[in-house]
Every structure is written in C-alpha cells, then in structure tokens.
Write a structure and sequence with these properties.
The protein is mainly α and 343 residues long. The protein contains 10 helices and no strands.
Length: 343
C-alpha cells in the first residue's frame, strides 16, 4: 500500500510540535524548581524564627530536628517574609508547577497523535524503525510520569525526566529519522505490535524507575533539611529519599513483568520466524541481562543490608544496560535484529 504523504507530514509536524511543547514544559519546570527553592528557604526561615530551640539543639548536638530545614539557611540580615508575601511566593511556584503538568499532558497528547498518524500513513503499527521505536518509548515515559506526578511535591522531578526525554527525541528525530515507508519483510508480522509495544512500555517505565534511583542517591547524599553547597541547593526541592526510593521500587515492580513478557513474546516470534525460541542473539542477550538486573534490584531492595544505595546502583545499571541495548546493540552490533537500526 502506498504511503499517505499528507498524514506522514502531519505526523512529522505533530512530533516537532510535541518536542517544542516538552521544551516549554522544561523551561517552566525549571522556573518552578527555582521558585520552590525560595519557598523552602522562606518556610525554614519562618520555622526557625518560630522555633529557635530546634536550631539551637541541632547546632549543639548535630541531632536536632532538621527534617525540613538546615542550619545556615537563614541569614540574620534577611528580612522575614510576611504571611501574605510567603503565600504569594508559594502560589507563584504552584502556578508554574501546574503549567508544567498541563504542558506535559498536552505534549503527550500531541506526541501520541504523531505516533498514530505515522501508523495511519503507512497502514501498519508505527514501530518499524528506531525513530518510531524511540518516539513510542518517549511518549509512554511521559504518560507514565504524568500519571505518577500528580501531587505538588512530585513536580520537582519534571526537569530530571524531561531532559533525557528531549535528548532522546532530538537524537531520534534527527540522526535516526526515517521517512514513512513499509517495514522490511522480517517485520511484516502481527507479532510486531504485540512484542515491540510491550517492550516499549517496559522500557518507558524503566526510565522513570532509573531516574528515581538516581535522584534517590542524590537525596541520601544531600538529606532533606541538611543540604550543603551547590548540590544541596540542587537537591533541595526534591522529595525525601524515602519517597524517591519508593517510586523507583514501585516502577521497577511494573517494569520487571512487562519487560519479561516482552522477551517471552519476542521468543515466540523468533520461533515462528527463525525456527528457534532463543539463540543468544546480541539483542536477546542484552535484553535478558536488563531483565536479570531488574530482578536483582527488586531482590536486593527486599534484602536486609542491600536496601540502601547498593540496590539503587543495580537499578541504575539496569537502566544503563537498557540504553546500551537501545543504541549500541541496535545500531552497531551485527545480529538478527540489525534491521531495527536505520532503514
């Protein structure tokens, strides 16, 4: 069937529009991030003035109640905000946080339209090359994040999620872009949407989990209320280490079975196409290693003595292996899956 060039053009336009929307969302999320730093400093200043005994005890023993503020945050010469000024500052931050959330959803809708139009233009499921594959992973990652990031305290995570998404989209939309066309014969199978879409969903949720573990490591290095220096200022608006660890863990719980199901479906497709379920092809091997690492993370996370940063490092390694599989295995290593590269 010939490609519908009109729908293909609309798809490309929607992709570019979604990229711009995500970029605007990143800018707004950074404004929100900076404003939240000011809100936190103002709140800690007010609490230290209202309860000076906390600062005194903490300064003397190092064990004071510093859950939400740190000694040295407040300069004695800084004017204390009035209730109205503090409320206005907090409302301003909330406004930018709300706009970030709205733009993320808008970008996801436009991005999803790009994916659907690409499929309609080629009369096939839009997962036939690396450009389409990366686009699908990114839109699923944004949707997953938008579902998780509903409460105000989680909106400080948006910049950390949008930056890698924008990098992936830019690389996919430039260096890996492929014109709308029928897929190669090896991919002309009903297993394509079943297998690849499942793997895409697992990878998308895995991105959220891995980034949460990265932020968790930053948070335990810069505990809430005891931040110091440049990295302390960067970490200040983030949720607590416990909440970030819980997000990484719950996301990995979903990633493991979804990615495992995708591998099993791929094995069934391999048996139908190549006459064997498993052949230790480079992509099969890398995918299996990623799955094993996610299983190891969940096991370590539930094992005494491994629940701290050790387990988080395993989750980050799983994400790195998945990214290695996405780019190096697909584009560099020769194997039965080499057609998944540039067409």
């Amino acid at each position: 069937m010939p490609v519908n060039q009109t729908l293909s053009t609309f798809s490309d336009t929607a992709f570019q529009t979604a990229f711009v929307i995500y970029l605007l969302a990143l800018v707004l999320s950074l404004v929100f991030y900076v404003k939240m730093q000011g809100v936190i400093d103002a709140r800690r200043a007010r609490e230290d003035i209202a309860h000076p005994e906390y600062v005194a005890v903490g300064a003397g023993t190092g064990t004071g109640d510093l859950t939400d503020r740190s000694i040295g945050d407040v300069n004695a010469t800084d004017p204390l905000l009035t209730d109205e000024q503090y409320a206005a500052q907090e409302a301003s931050a909330d406004k930018f946080g709300g706009m970030t959330q709205a733009l993320a959803w808008l970008g996801a809708v436009v991005h999803l339209m790009s994916v659907v139009l690409r499929g309609l233009a080629t009369d096939r499921f839009p997962l036939g090359n690396m450009y389409e594959y990366i686009s699908m992973i990114c839109v699923l990652a944004v949707i997953s994040a938008a579902i998780v990031i509903q409460r105000r305290e989680w909106r400080s995570v948006w910049p950390w999620l949008l930056v890698p998404i924008l990098v992936l989209l830019f690389f996919g939309g430039t260096s890996l872009y492929s014109n709308s066309a029928p897929v190669v014969p090896a991919l002309q199978s009903y297993w394509l949407p079943v297998h690849v879409s499942t793997v895409s969903l697992g990878a998308a949720i895995g991105i959220v989990s891995g980034i949460a573990s990265l932020l968790y490591l930053l948070r335990i290095w810069q505990p809430k209320g005891r931040e110091r220096g440049f990295f302390g200022a960067v970490a200040k608006p983030l949720p607590s280490a416990k909440k970030l660890d819980a997000l990484a863990y719950k996301s990995a719980i979903i990633t493991l079975p979804v990615l495992g199901l995708g591998i099993v479906l791929g094995a069934i497709w391999a048996e139908a196409s190549w006459g064997r379920f498993w052949g230790w092809d480079p992509k099969e091997t890398a995918s299996f290693i990623s799955w094993v690492l996610y299983a190891a993370y969940l096991h370590a996370r539930a094992t005494a003595g491994w629940r701290d940063h050790k387990a988080a490092w395993i989750n980050i390694l799983a994400l790195a292996t998945m990214i290695f599989n996405l780019f190096f295995i697909n584009l560099v290593v020769s194997g039965l899956h080499s057609y998944a590269g540039l067409n």
